[in-house]
Design goal:
UDP-galactose 4-epimerase, domain 1, alpha/beta, single chain, Rossmann fold, 13 strands
């Protein structure tokens, strides 16, 4: 039977990498449909080396149930990446993000959706954040975005039970790489390109994060999708189940360490000026034992190599 994969947010930073991997490795007859909100275009794929056969790009209002139902018609697998982090772009960020997930839930209940993969965030751990944090740690989201991602997780867990779909949630840690639109590494790359060495920061630089390269992040999604569809050598996910899996490297790196490492890669020192601020999540990294055992995932690109690629390669 022809496999139909719908990817929401497929023109975003991570989405483009996942779509490319799917297009490169898909079987004959597999169709891939990217659904984006009205402000996005298919330009992210312009000039890329893949055959457009069986590939479709659709713009619609994903918060509209009718619009989403029409756009996703025929899908038996859904990869849900679409989200907003900026409350200034929507009147209600929580409602905006959750409504898209609720529409996926409604679609799944009225259609034969076999597998759903949700992209979530380490930010759901919030006030309980810690280094080497496990998936069963209590969640205490701090920001509206983190609250929205936790609610989306709950919606998907309920959907899997109701519909009998196989589902998985990847709690991504800090994804970086060429083409990233935000973040400290995006800022550093901009400074390198402009030749500016002085960096003014609001925080004290001791906030630590787990940085995962976008190629590894995309690979984690592909491995999860294979397990959900039963295409991996390991046992397929159980019907009606919804596994939550950290997607990181297990390494916590502070902003100060990151700036020093970046300077080593370009052969020049940055001149940071730190402030007194502190992020509510002081330090966090993933316990990776579950993703290793369940998906066979190991990051292929360490932070040093990732920084080298970031500062020396174009997307």
């Amino acid at each position: 039977m022809k496999e139909s994969i719908v990817i929401t947010g497929g023109a975003g930073f991570l989405g483009v990498h996942i779509v490319r991997r799917l297009l490169a490795g898909r079987n004959e007859g597999c169709s891939i449909k990217v659904i984006e909100n009205m402000t996005f275009s298919a330009s992210a794929y312009a000039g890329k080396s893949f055959s457009p056969s069986g590939f479709e790009f659709i713009r619609c209002d994903m918060t509209s149930r009718n619009d989403f139902m029409k756009a996703a018609a025929g899908a038996d697998t859904i990869i849900h990446l679409a989200r907003s982090e900026d409350p200034l772009k929507t009147s209600d960020l929580v409602d905006y993000n959750c409504s898209m997930t609720e529409n996926i839930a409604a679609f799944s209940q009225s259609n034969d959706v076999k597998a759903i993969l949700l992209s979530s965030s380490f930010q759901v751990y919030g006030a309980n954040a810690a280094e080497n944090i496990k998936e069963d740690a209590p969640c205490a989201p701090i920001t509206p975005y983190a609250h929205s991602k936790k609610l989306c997780e709950l919606i998907l867990q309920d959907t899997a039970q109701r519909t009998g779909s196989r589902a998985a949630i990847l709690r991504y840690f800090n994804i970086y790489g060429p083409g990233a639109g935000t973040g400290i590494l995006k800022m550093l790359k901009g400074h390198v390109e402009s030749g500016a060495a002085d960096i003014c920061l609001h925080n004290d630089g001791f906030d630590g994060r787990d940085y995962i390269h976008v190629d590894d992040a995309a690979n984690a999604a592909i491995l999860a999708l294979r397990r959900l569809s039963g295409k991996e050598s390991m046992p397929a996910a159980e019907i009606g189940s919804c596994e939550i899996v950290n997607a990181g490297t297990g390494r916590c790196t502070t902003v100060r360490q990151l700036i020093e490492m970046a300077g080593e890669q370009i052969g020049s020192e940055f001149r940071p000026r730190y402030g007194s601020g502190q992020d509510p999540i002081r330090a966090i990294s993933a316990d990776c034992r579950k993703i290793q055992s369940m998906l066979g995932f190991w990051p292929a690109i360490d932070l040093e190599e990732g920084l080298k690629r970031l500062f020396n390669e174009n997307l």
